[in-house]
Protein backbone atom coordinates (compact mmCIF):
# COMPACT_ATOMS: atom_id res chain seq x y z
CA UNK A 1 0.00 0.00 0.00
CA UNK A 2 1.27 3.49 -0.86
CA UNK A 3 1.61 5.62 2.29
CA UNK A 4 2.21 9.36 2.12
CA UNK A 5 3.60 9.91 5.64
CA UNK A 6 5.32 13.31 5.36
CA UNK A 7 4.82 13.57 1.60
CA UNK A 8 2.89 16.65 0.47
CA UNK A 9 1.19 16.75 -2.92
CA UNK A 10 2.54 19.34 -5.32
CA UNK A 11 1.54 19.81 -8.92
CA UNK A 12 3.97 17.59 -10.89
CA UNK A 13 5.32 18.00 -14.38
CA UNK A 14 6.50 15.36 -16.83
CA UNK A 15 9.93 14.42 -18.14
CA UNK A 16 10.08 11.97 -21.03
CA UNK A 17 13.51 10.34 -21.41
CA UNK A 18 14.37 8.56 -24.64
CA UNK A 19 17.59 7.43 -26.25
CA UNK A 20 17.62 10.45 -28.57
CA UNK A 21 16.45 13.23 -26.27
CA UNK A 22 14.53 14.49 -23.25
CA UNK A 23 11.30 16.49 -23.24
CA UNK A 24 9.49 18.19 -20.37
CA UNK A 25 6.06 19.73 -19.99
CA UNK A 26 3.80 21.08 -17.26
CA UNK A 27 0.05 21.42 -17.76
CA UNK A 28 -2.29 23.67 -15.80
CA UNK A 29 -4.82 21.77 -13.71
CA UNK A 30 -8.07 21.00 -15.57
CA UNK A 31 -7.39 23.55 -18.32
CA UNK A 32 -5.26 21.57 -20.76
CA UNK A 33 -2.88 24.51 -21.13
CA UNK A 34 0.89 24.09 -21.07
CA UNK A 35 2.61 26.28 -18.50
CA UNK A 36 6.12 25.05 -19.34
CA UNK A 37 7.78 22.96 -22.01
CA UNK A 38 11.22 22.26 -23.41
CA UNK A 39 13.41 19.66 -25.08
CA UNK A 40 17.02 18.72 -25.62
CA UNK A 41 18.49 16.41 -28.27
CA UNK A 42 21.08 13.90 -27.08
CA UNK A 43 23.75 11.60 -28.47
CA UNK A 44 22.10 8.14 -28.82
CA UNK A 45 25.33 6.24 -28.11
CA UNK A 46 26.06 8.24 -24.96
CA UNK A 47 22.46 7.79 -23.82
CA UNK A 48 22.68 4.03 -24.35
CA UNK A 49 25.64 3.96 -21.95
CA UNK A 50 24.01 6.37 -19.49
CA UNK A 51 20.74 4.42 -19.27
CA UNK A 52 22.45 1.06 -18.77
CA UNK A 53 25.26 2.22 -16.47
CA UNK A 54 25.58 0.14 -13.31
CA UNK A 55 27.74 2.74 -11.57
CA UNK A 56 26.94 6.38 -10.85
CA UNK A 57 30.12 7.65 -12.48
CA UNK A 58 28.44 8.30 -15.87
CA UNK A 59 27.09 11.84 -15.59
CA UNK A 60 25.81 12.39 -19.15
CA UNK A 61 22.14 11.89 -18.23
CA UNK A 62 22.46 13.99 -15.06
CA UNK A 63 24.09 16.86 -16.93
CA UNK A 64 21.48 16.67 -19.69
CA UNK A 65 18.54 16.83 -17.25
CA UNK A 66 20.15 19.76 -15.44
CA UNK A 67 20.68 21.63 -18.71
CA UNK A 68 17.10 21.00 -19.78
CA UNK A 69 15.59 22.14 -16.49
CA UNK A 70 17.79 25.20 -16.02
CA UNK A 71 18.41 26.44 -19.56
CA UNK A 72 15.93 24.97 -22.05
CA UNK A 73 12.53 25.64 -20.44
CA UNK A 74 9.90 27.96 -21.86
CA UNK A 75 7.63 29.08 -19.00
CA UNK A 76 8.01 28.13 -15.33
CA UNK A 77 7.78 24.74 -13.63
CA UNK A 78 5.01 24.38 -11.01
CA UNK A 79 7.15 22.43 -8.53
CA UNK A 80 10.11 20.09 -8.30
CA UNK A 81 7.85 17.00 -8.40
CA UNK A 82 8.31 15.06 -11.60
CA UNK A 83 6.76 12.07 -13.34
CA UNK A 84 9.33 10.20 -15.44
CA UNK A 85 8.59 8.47 -18.75
CA UNK A 86 11.09 5.85 -19.89
CA UNK A 87 11.60 4.19 -23.30
CA UNK A 88 8.87 1.67 -24.03
CA UNK A 89 11.40 -0.33 -26.06
CA UNK A 90 13.36 -0.96 -22.86
CA UNK A 91 10.34 -2.18 -20.90
CA UNK A 92 8.38 -5.44 -20.95
CA UNK A 93 4.59 -5.59 -20.81
CA UNK A 94 2.33 -8.62 -20.79
CA UNK A 95 -1.37 -9.21 -20.31
CA UNK A 96 -2.56 -12.57 -19.05
CA UNK A 97 -5.56 -14.17 -17.35
CA UNK A 98 -5.80 -16.59 -14.48
CA UNK A 99 -8.77 -18.35 -12.84
CA UNK A 100 -10.47 -16.17 -10.28
CA UNK A 101 -9.88 -18.77 -7.58
CA UNK A 102 -6.14 -18.43 -8.22
CA UNK A 103 -6.05 -14.67 -7.76
CA UNK A 104 -4.75 -15.11 -4.23
CA UNK A 105 -1.61 -16.54 -5.84
CA UNK A 106 -1.18 -13.56 -8.15
CA UNK A 107 2.31 -12.67 -6.92
CA UNK A 108 3.54 -16.17 -7.76
CA UNK A 109 1.87 -16.00 -11.19
CA UNK A 110 3.66 -12.71 -11.90
CA UNK A 111 6.99 -14.31 -11.01
CA UNK A 112 6.29 -17.20 -13.39
CA UNK A 113 5.38 -14.80 -16.22
CA UNK A 114 8.59 -12.84 -15.69
CA UNK A 115 10.74 -15.96 -15.62
CA UNK A 116 9.17 -17.44 -18.76
CA UNK A 117 8.85 -14.38 -21.00
CA UNK A 118 11.43 -11.77 -19.98
CA UNK A 119 15.08 -12.44 -20.92
CA UNK A 120 16.41 -10.65 -17.82
CA UNK A 121 16.71 -12.10 -14.30
CA UNK A 122 13.84 -11.14 -12.02
CA UNK A 123 16.33 -9.76 -9.50
CA UNK A 124 17.39 -7.15 -12.07
CA UNK A 125 13.86 -5.89 -12.74
CA UNK A 126 11.34 -3.58 -11.17
CA UNK A 127 7.94 -5.21 -11.70
CA UNK A 128 4.47 -3.78 -11.24
CA UNK A 129 1.05 -5.16 -12.09
CA UNK A 130 -2.64 -4.36 -11.98
CA UNK A 131 -5.85 -6.34 -12.30
CA UNK A 132 -7.67 -4.52 -15.13
CA UNK A 133 -10.73 -6.75 -15.48
CA UNK A 134 -12.59 -9.38 -13.49
CA UNK A 135 -15.34 -11.82 -14.38
CA UNK A 136 -16.81 -14.66 -12.37
CA UNK A 137 -14.35 -17.01 -14.04
CA UNK A 138 -11.09 -15.08 -14.47
CA UNK A 139 -9.01 -12.01 -13.66
CA UNK A 140 -7.13 -10.16 -16.40
CA UNK A 141 -3.79 -8.80 -15.28
CA UNK A 142 -1.39 -6.41 -16.95
CA UNK A 143 2.23 -6.61 -15.88
CA UNK A 144 5.02 -4.15 -16.63
CA UNK A 145 8.73 -4.64 -15.94
CA UNK A 146 11.82 -2.56 -16.62
CA UNK A 147 15.51 -3.07 -15.73
CA UNK A 148 16.44 -1.58 -12.38
CA UNK A 149 19.52 0.12 -13.83
CA UNK A 150 17.40 2.24 -16.22
CA UNK A 151 14.96 3.34 -13.51
CA UNK A 152 17.71 4.00 -10.97
CA UNK A 153 19.76 6.05 -13.43
CA UNK A 154 16.75 8.14 -14.47
CA UNK A 155 15.78 8.81 -10.84
CA UNK A 156 19.38 9.65 -9.92
CA UNK A 157 19.65 12.11 -12.81
CA UNK A 158 16.43 13.89 -11.83
CA UNK A 159 17.41 14.06 -8.17
CA UNK A 160 20.80 15.52 -9.14
CA UNK A 161 18.87 18.31 -10.89
CA UNK A 162 16.96 19.05 -7.68
CA UNK A 163 13.80 17.22 -8.72
CA UNK A 164 11.67 14.77 -6.74
CA UNK A 165 10.44 11.80 -8.80
CA UNK A 166 6.96 10.69 -7.75
CA UNK A 167 6.16 8.17 -10.50
CA UNK A 168 7.85 6.24 -13.32
CA UNK A 169 6.09 4.63 -16.28
CA UNK A 170 6.78 3.49 -19.87
CA UNK A 171 6.17 6.35 -22.28
CA UNK A 172 3.52 4.38 -24.22
CA UNK A 173 1.29 4.51 -21.12
CA UNK A 174 1.55 8.28 -21.15
CA UNK A 175 0.69 8.34 -24.85
CA UNK A 176 -2.40 6.23 -24.12
CA UNK A 177 -3.48 8.70 -21.43
CA UNK A 178 -3.41 11.68 -23.79
CA UNK A 179 -5.13 9.74 -26.58
CA UNK A 180 -7.94 8.65 -24.26
CA UNK A 181 -8.61 12.29 -23.48
CA UNK A 182 -8.31 13.73 -26.98
CA UNK A 183 -8.63 11.04 -29.67
CA UNK A 184 -11.73 8.88 -29.10
CA UNK A 185 -9.80 6.75 -26.64
CA UNK A 186 -12.89 4.72 -25.78
CA UNK A 187 -12.42 2.79 -29.03
CA UNK A 188 -10.09 -0.21 -29.23
CA UNK A 189 -7.04 1.58 -30.63
CA UNK A 190 -3.75 0.56 -32.15
CA UNK A 191 -1.06 3.09 -31.21
CA UNK A 192 1.94 3.46 -33.52
CA UNK A 193 4.47 5.72 -31.78
CA UNK A 194 7.17 6.56 -34.33
CA UNK A 195 10.10 8.05 -32.45
CA UNK A 196 13.33 9.29 -33.93
CA UNK A 197 15.04 5.90 -33.74
CA UNK A 198 12.38 3.36 -32.69
CA UNK A 199 8.70 2.66 -33.31
CA UNK A 200 6.59 1.42 -30.40
CA UNK A 201 3.31 -0.36 -31.15
CA UNK A 202 0.58 -1.00 -28.59
CA UNK A 203 -3.08 -1.93 -28.29
CA UNK A 204 -5.15 0.35 -26.06
CA UNK A 205 -8.46 -1.24 -25.09
CA UNK A 206 -10.78 -0.81 -22.13
CA UNK A 207 -8.60 1.96 -20.66
CA UNK A 208 -5.43 -0.11 -20.55
CA UNK A 209 -2.44 -0.98 -22.70
CA UNK A 210 -3.00 -4.68 -23.47
CA UNK A 211 0.03 -5.64 -25.56
CA UNK A 212 3.14 -3.92 -26.90
CA UNK A 213 5.66 -4.47 -29.66
CA UNK A 214 8.20 -2.48 -31.58
CA UNK A 215 10.85 -2.22 -34.27
CA UNK A 216 14.11 -0.30 -34.67
CA UNK A 217 12.85 2.15 -37.31
CA UNK A 218 12.06 5.82 -36.71
CA UNK A 219 11.98 9.29 -38.17
CA UNK A 220 15.76 9.36 -38.55
CA UNK A 221 15.50 6.16 -40.60
CA UNK A 222 13.05 7.88 -42.95
CA UNK A 223 15.46 10.78 -43.44
CA UNK A 224 18.33 8.41 -44.22
CA UNK A 225 16.14 6.46 -46.65
CA UNK A 226 15.30 9.62 -48.60
CA UNK A 227 18.88 10.90 -48.59
CA UNK A 228 20.20 7.62 -49.92
CA UNK A 229 17.51 7.14 -52.58
CA UNK A 230 17.67 10.70 -53.91
CA UNK A 231 21.41 11.10 -53.30
CA UNK A 232 20.98 14.35 -51.35
CA UNK A 233 22.21 15.79 -48.05
CA UNK A 234 20.45 14.83 -44.81
CA UNK A 235 19.18 18.39 -44.25
CA UNK A 236 17.54 18.40 -47.67
CA UNK A 237 16.13 14.92 -47.09
CA UNK A 238 14.61 16.04 -43.79
CA UNK A 239 12.94 19.01 -45.49
CA UNK A 240 11.46 16.77 -48.19
CA UNK A 241 10.23 14.38 -45.50
CA UNK A 242 8.37 16.97 -43.41
CA UNK A 243 7.20 19.29 -46.19
CA UNK A 244 6.35 16.88 -49.03
CA UNK A 245 6.27 13.48 -47.42
CA UNK A 246 4.01 11.00 -49.21
CA UNK A 247 1.67 13.67 -50.53
CA UNK A 248 1.34 14.63 -54.18
CA UNK A 249 4.47 16.45 -55.37
CA UNK A 250 7.04 16.25 -58.19
CA UNK A 251 9.14 13.97 -55.99
CA UNK A 252 6.27 11.89 -54.57
CA UNK A 253 7.16 8.71 -56.45
CA UNK A 254 10.83 8.80 -55.42
CA UNK A 255 10.05 9.64 -51.78
CA UNK A 256 7.41 6.91 -51.57
CA UNK A 257 9.81 4.40 -53.12
CA UNK A 258 12.49 5.44 -50.61
CA UNK A 259 10.21 5.10 -47.58
CA UNK A 260 8.25 2.01 -48.62
CA UNK A 261 10.72 -0.63 -47.25
CA UNK A 262 10.76 0.96 -43.77
CA UNK A 263 7.01 1.59 -43.74
CA UNK A 264 6.40 -2.00 -44.85
CA UNK A 265 8.47 -3.28 -41.93
CA UNK A 266 6.38 -1.18 -39.54
CA UNK A 267 3.17 -2.49 -41.13
CA UNK A 268 4.37 -6.07 -40.77
CA UNK A 269 5.13 -5.50 -37.09
CA UNK A 270 1.68 -3.94 -36.64
CA UNK A 271 0.10 -7.06 -38.15
CA UNK A 272 2.04 -9.25 -35.69
CA UNK A 273 0.74 -7.22 -32.74
CA UNK A 274 -2.83 -7.37 -34.07
CA UNK A 275 -2.55 -11.13 -34.59
CA UNK A 276 -1.13 -11.69 -31.11
CA UNK A 277 -3.84 -9.55 -29.52
CA UNK A 278 -6.65 -11.26 -31.42
CA UNK A 279 -5.41 -14.79 -30.79
CA UNK A 280 -3.93 -14.55 -27.29
CA UNK A 281 -5.53 -11.62 -25.48
CA UNK A 282 -9.09 -10.85 -26.61
CA UNK A 283 -10.73 -12.72 -29.45
CA UNK A 284 -13.99 -10.80 -29.00
CA UNK A 285 -12.57 -7.29 -29.34
CA UNK A 286 -12.00 -5.68 -32.75
CA UNK A 287 -9.41 -2.95 -33.16
CA UNK A 288 -11.28 0.02 -34.61
CA UNK A 289 -8.63 2.63 -35.34
CA UNK A 290 -4.90 3.22 -35.72
CA UNK A 291 -3.47 6.43 -34.27
CA UNK A 292 0.04 7.54 -35.20
CA UNK A 293 2.09 9.66 -32.79
CA UNK A 294 5.70 10.56 -32.10
CA UNK A 295 8.51 12.61 -33.57
CA UNK A 296 8.52 10.52 -36.74
CA UNK A 297 4.82 11.00 -37.43
CA UNK A 298 5.46 14.37 -39.10
CA UNK A 299 5.41 12.85 -42.61
CA UNK A 300 2.51 14.25 -44.67
CA UNK A 301 0.35 11.44 -46.00
CA UNK A 302 1.55 8.78 -43.56
CA UNK A 303 -1.97 8.28 -42.19
CA UNK A 304 -3.33 7.56 -45.66
CA UNK A 305 -0.45 5.16 -46.31
CA UNK A 306 -1.28 3.00 -43.29
CA UNK A 307 -5.01 3.22 -44.00
CA UNK A 308 -4.45 1.72 -47.44
CA UNK A 309 -1.75 -0.74 -46.44
CA UNK A 310 -3.49 -2.13 -43.35
CA UNK A 311 -7.10 -1.60 -44.52
CA UNK A 312 -7.86 0.16 -41.24
CA UNK A 313 -8.78 3.78 -40.45
CA UNK A 314 -5.47 5.47 -39.58
CA UNK A 315 -4.60 9.06 -38.76
CA UNK A 316 -1.93 11.14 -37.09
CA UNK A 317 -2.95 12.20 -33.59
CA UNK A 318 -3.74 15.89 -33.21
CA UNK A 319 -4.43 16.64 -29.55
CA UNK A 320 -3.46 20.29 -30.00
CA UNK A 321 -7.06 21.42 -30.44
CA UNK A 322 -7.59 20.53 -26.78
CA UNK A 323 -4.05 20.90 -25.50
CA UNK A 324 -2.93 24.50 -25.94
CA UNK A 325 0.27 26.43 -25.30
CA UNK A 326 -1.50 29.46 -23.86
CA UNK A 327 0.51 32.65 -24.00
CA UNK A 328 3.61 30.91 -25.30
CA UNK A 329 4.62 30.51 -28.90
CA UNK A 330 4.11 26.77 -29.56
CA UNK A 331 6.83 24.57 -31.03
CA UNK A 332 6.80 24.49 -34.82
CA UNK A 333 4.31 22.09 -36.39
CA UNK A 334 7.02 19.60 -37.35
CA UNK A 335 8.35 19.41 -33.75
CA UNK A 336 5.01 19.40 -31.91
CA UNK A 337 4.52 15.59 -32.18
CA UNK A 338 7.57 15.13 -29.93
CA UNK A 339 5.54 16.40 -26.99
CA UNK A 340 2.62 13.95 -27.00
CA UNK A 341 4.16 11.44 -24.56
CA UNK A 342 5.36 14.09 -22.14
CA UNK A 343 1.93 15.77 -22.31
CA UNK A 344 0.48 12.46 -21.17
CA UNK A 345 2.90 12.40 -18.24
CA UNK A 346 2.03 15.96 -17.29
CA UNK A 347 -1.74 15.36 -17.47
CA UNK A 348 -1.82 12.61 -14.85
CA UNK A 349 -4.28 13.08 -12.00
CA UNK A 350 -3.18 12.95 -8.38
CA UNK A 351 -5.26 9.87 -7.61
CA UNK A 352 -3.32 7.88 -10.20
CA UNK A 353 -0.15 8.44 -8.19
CA UNK A 354 -1.56 6.61 -5.20
CA UNK A 355 -3.32 3.63 -6.73
Structure description:
- The protein is of the alpha/beta class and 355 residues long.
- The chain has two domains: 12-90 and 147-183 and 322-355, Nucleotidyltransferase, domain 5 (2-Layer Sandwich), CATH 3.30.420.40; 185-317, ATPase, nucleotide binding domain (Nucleotidyltransferase, domain 5).
- It has eleven helices and 14 strands.
- It has helices spanning 44-52, 60-71, 106-117, 148-160, 171-182, 219-230, 234-243, 252-281, 302-310, 340-346, 350-353, and strands at residues 13-17, 21-27, 34-41, 74-75, 81-86, 92-99, 125-134, 138-147, 164-170, 189-194, 199-205, 208-215, 289-293, 314-316.
- The strands form three sheets. The chain has a six-stranded mixed sheet with strand order 4-3-2-1-5-9, with helices on both faces. A five-stranded mixed sheet has the order 12-11-10-13-14, with helices on both faces. A three-stranded antiparallel sheet has the order 6-8-7.
- Helix 2 (60-71) crosses helix 4, helix 6 (219-230) crosses helix 7 (234-243) and helix 6 packs antiparallel against helix 8 (252-281).
- The longest helix has 30 residues, at 252-281.
- It starts with 12 loop residues before the first strand and ends with a helix.
Distinctive features:
about 350 residues, alpha/beta, Nucleotidyltransferase, domain 5, 2 domains, six-stranded mixed sheet, five-stranded mixed sheet, 14 strands
CATH architecture of the largest domain: 2-Layer Sandwich
Uncertain residue segments:
none
SS-derived structural category? alpha/beta
Listing every helix as H and every strand as E from the N terminus to the C terminus, the arrangement reads EEEHHEEEHEEHEHEEEHHHEHEHH
CATH-wise, what's the superfamily of the largest domain?
ATPase, nucleotide binding domain
Strand content: 25-35%
Largest sheet: 6 strands, mixed
- DSSP E strands, number: 14
Q: What would CATH call the class of the largest domain?
A: Alpha Beta
Inertia-based shape: globular
Rg over C-alpha atoms, rounded to the nearest angstrom:
20 Å
Q: Give the strand line-up of the largest sheet.
A: 4-3-2-1-5-9
Number of helices: 11
Distance between the amino and carboxyl termini: 8 Å
Question: What name is given to the CATH topology of the largest domain?
Answer: Nucleotidyltransferase, domain 5
The figure for the number of domains is: 2
Amino acid sequence: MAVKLFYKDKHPFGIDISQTGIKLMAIQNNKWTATAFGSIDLDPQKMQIALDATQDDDTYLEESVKELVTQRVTGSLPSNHVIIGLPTSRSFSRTFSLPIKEERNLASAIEVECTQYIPIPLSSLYVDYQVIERTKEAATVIMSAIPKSIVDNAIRACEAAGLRPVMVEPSINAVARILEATEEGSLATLIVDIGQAYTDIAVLDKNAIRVTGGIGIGGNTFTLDIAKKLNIALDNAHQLKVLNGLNLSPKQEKITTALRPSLTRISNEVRKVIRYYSERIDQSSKIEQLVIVGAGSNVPGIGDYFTNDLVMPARVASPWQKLEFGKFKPPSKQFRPRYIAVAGLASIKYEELWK
